[in-house]
Specification:
Elements: H1 7-11, E1 16-23, H2 27-35, H3 37-43, E2 50-56, E3 63-69, E4 75-86, E5 90-95, E6 101-110, E7 113-122, H4 125-149
Antiparallel strand pairs: 1-7, 2-3, 3-4, 4-5, 5-6, 6-7
Length: 154
């Protein structure tokens, strides 16, 4: 993640959630925690959620369809399309379900650790404000769960 925001980052700042986490694992292992659906299903989502994947085609144009199962017993269908996959540096996907957004996840090697960047851009500032109370904490929980899952990645 560069220190100076790009022109695109500046133009979408009012619509974006931006998080970063230094994870105590090499970049390839952290990337695999996302790229291997068996691992991804174990950590994707906020605390208390689990996921059942119907399709996971990690390539540009590939579909990712799954259901998140909430701790309240509710099911939340999700559908996304991968826009860019650069192993082990970056994954970009467009979430086309209820809350439309583009998520860019970057994996930057920092010695034996990995700086994970998380930039989620919604369509409008109003939509960002409407869901911020839930999404900020949920994204941090997602990164917590990723950090815990990497110990299970060979």
């Amino acid at each position: 993640m560069s220190e100076k925001p790009t022109a695109d980052e500046e133009s979408t700042a009012d619509r974006a959630f931006v998080h970063a986490r230094l994870i105590d694992a090499p970049r390839e292992r952290v990337f695999k925690a996302f790229s291997d659906p068996a691992h991804l299903a174990r950590w994707w989502g906020p605390n208390g959620f689990s996921s059942t994947f119907d399709e996971f085609d990690l390539r540009p144009g590939g579909a990712w369809r799954f259901v998140m199962h909430g701790p309240d017993g509710a099911n939340y269908p999700n559908e996304s399309v991968f826009v860019e996959v650069v192993e082990p540096e970056r994954i970009v996907f467009e979430h086309i379900s209820e809350h439309h957004f583009q998520l860019t996840i970057t994996f930057e090697a920092r010695g034996a650790k990995t700086l994970v960047g998380w930039r989620q851009v919604l369509d409008t500032e109003a939509e960002r404000q409407r869901i911020a109370k839930v999404v900020v904490e949920a994204n941090e929980q997602n990164l917590d769960r990723l950090a815990a899952e990497v110990v299970n990645v060979a």
